[in-house]
Amino acid sequence: MCVRSLGSILVLLGLLACRAQPSQPHASLSVADSLRGPNDSGYAKALEPRGFHFPEDHGPHPDFRTEWWYFTGNLETPSARRFGFQLTFFRSALAPAMPARTSAWATRQAYLAHFTVADVSKERFRSFERWGRGALGLAGAQDEPFRVWTGDWSAAAVGRETFPLRLHAAQGDAALDLVLQEGKPPVLQGDRGLSRKSAEPGNASYYYSLPRMPAIGTVRLGDKSFAVTGEAWMDREWSTSSLGRDEIGWDWFALQLDGGREVMLYQLRKRDGSVDPASSGTMIGPAGKTRSLDSGGFSITVLDRWRSPRSAAAYPGRWRLRVPAEDLDLEVIPLLADQELDVSFRYWEGAVTVTGTRQGAPVSGRGYVELTGYSETAAR
């Protein structure tokens, strides 16, 4: 997802990776400040378009400082009970080269994972966090056979090929066990997979998506398990630096419309309230044909807001999205108002429903939205 690096993991994991037991640290870290923090000397940078190669690029890119595997999706039982889920893994390099140490604990890689379940009918949102050192098998990533994991949370190939792919996470009273098919082939975002985040050279990522992955499996809540089917979206990015000096956060939309079309939009917000011109998006047709959108090719209008009782952040709570070139006019509504992750840093990421028109005909769909930088603003 565009700027989904949530790069505060660089600070977070440096502080927490050595802890032996998980806990819930106070959510006080700033995503934007962390993305602008450490020196990037010695790391590879996303400077120009590159070739993508699969299955290799599903695996890790350790020369870059930050990397993430981002799975979100909407699920439903045969009786139409609805759930949203998020399972994401972040890799962060703590140094550009391996330290000269002989300890089996020595590593320059650390991992963070987030797991959420939105139970729509019960109006309850659960969020969890784990982290681990990239040593002794505690956490890691590999390309063949594909696997990324933090503890016993994982996304892993079922067989020798990358797909089908199994997602597994369990904590507290919630568990997720899904098998995903590839669905549509990878979509390269931005300029042939180079996604620029600001005008500053190197503030970019290599970014591709799998925008419509058929999903089947189970969701467990308490002592009840639910057989579910649905569709997931996977975002893959790796980079060394992302946000510019004046950017405070972003609003990201991944929408799956009925009829086989998808929409990805992200809007980068600046400190003065304006939108950074690096904001962009992609329209994806039923056969996979794409149309790139620059910041002038779409508009996002906030129609309502929701204030968090934990962070006091006033998040957007309903939107109108327009893409004139597609004659697309959509209203996006959260399935639950409160889908704020209460983890080491707070952000809102949740399941949404979509209605509207395309070329005058009715259209509907589902998706996920991510909102960052709002809790930091509220705290000032």
3D structure, described in words:
The chain is mainly beta. It has one domain: Beta Barrel (AttH-like fold). 5% of the residues lie in helices and 51% in strands. It is built from 3 helices and 23 strands. The protein has helices at 9-16, 31-35, 374-379; strands at residues 66-76, 82-93, 109-119, 124-133, 139-142, 147-150, 153-157, 165-171, 174-180, 187-188, 194-196, 204-221, 224-241, 247-257, 261-270, 280-284, 290-293, 299-307, 314-323, 328-334, 340-341, 347-358, 361-371. It starts with 8 loop residues before the first helix and ends with a helix.
User: Can you tell me the CATH superfamily?
Assistant: AttH-like domain
Q: What are the segments in which pLDDT stays under 50 over at least 5 consecutive residues? A: 1-31, 33-37
User: Tell me about the biggest sheet?
Assistant: 13 strands, antiparallel
Number of strands: 23
Q: Could you give a short description of this structure?
A:
This protein has about 375 residues and is mostly beta strands. It has helices spanning about 10-15, 30-35, 375-380; strands at about 65-75, 80-95, 110-120, 125-135, 140, 145-150, 155, 165-170, 175-180, 185-190, 195, 205-220, 225-240, 245-255, 260-270, 280-285, 290-295, 300-305, 315-325, 330-335, 340, 345-360, 360-370.
Structure keywords:
globular, mainly beta, 3 helices, AttH-like fold, single chain, 13-stranded antiparallel sheet, disordered N terminus, ten-stranded antiparallel sheet
